[in-house]
């Protein structure tokens, strides 16, 4: 391994997470809060940290079906996130529209507008499933950086 590659690998920071609510019922958001607040499911033990700004994030967690009213805001925020970014659809709503699928106010699955790297199904998904999705997203992020684990 070259010295440059080794220094790049050593200097990589932990990925930062940002949550976007695209119109959810907040069930998935409560489970995401579990991964931030309860030690048993603490996401920081995997080297990830929640941040408050999309401009500083590496992994975006999207909850809820994409509603007509939220579409432009969600897309604007998603485009503010610097590359390389990894998108995680948390819950069945961003994956397929969930129970709201077919409604007049639902734009459909999030992957119509945004490329999704990881799907975490469930209504709401269990904290363990969310953690697995975040760990997978972290490894995808490292691959996009060229620093495979």
UniProtKB/TrEMBL annotation:
Any Pfam family matching the protein: Oxidored_q6
Required cofactor names: [4Fe-4S] cluster
SUPFAM superfamilies on file: HydA/Nqo6-like (SSF56770)
Family matches, as InterPro entries: Complex_I_20kDa-like, NADH_UbQ_OxRdtase-like_20kDa
Molecular functions (GO terms): 4 iron, 4 sulfur cluster binding; metal ion binding
Ranges of residues in domain NADH:ubiquinone oxidoreductase-like 20kDa subunit: 25-135
Keywords on record: 4Fe-4S, Iron, Iron-sulfur, Metal-binding
Family to which the UniProt record says this protein belongs: Belongs to the complex I 20 kDa subunit family.
Protein name per UniProt: H+-translocating [NiFe] hydrogenase complex, small subunit CooL
Species assigned in the record: Candidatus Desulfovibrio trichonymphae
Biological classification of the source: Bacteria, Pseudomonadati, Thermodesulfobacteriota, Desulfovibrionia, Desulfovibrionales
């Amino acid at each position: 391994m070259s010295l440059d590659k080794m220094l790049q690998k050593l200097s990589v920071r932990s990925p930062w997470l940002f949550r976007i609510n695209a119109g959810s019922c907040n069930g998935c958001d409560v489970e995401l809060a579990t991964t931030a607040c309860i030690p048993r499911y603490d996401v920081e033990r995997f080297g990830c940290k929640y941040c408050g700004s999309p401009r500083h994030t590496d992994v975006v967690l999207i909850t809820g079906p994409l509603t007509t009213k939220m579409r432009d805001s969600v897309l604007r925020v998603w485009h503010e996130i610097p590359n390389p970014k990894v998108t995680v659809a948390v819950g069945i709503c961003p994956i397929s529209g969930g129970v709201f699928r077919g409604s007049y106010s639902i734009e459909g699955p999030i992957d119509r507008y945004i490329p999704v790297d990881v799907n975490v199904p469930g209504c709401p998904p269990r904290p363990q499933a969310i953690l697995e999705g975040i760990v997978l997203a972290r490894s995808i992020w490292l691959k996009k950086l060229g620093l495979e684990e």
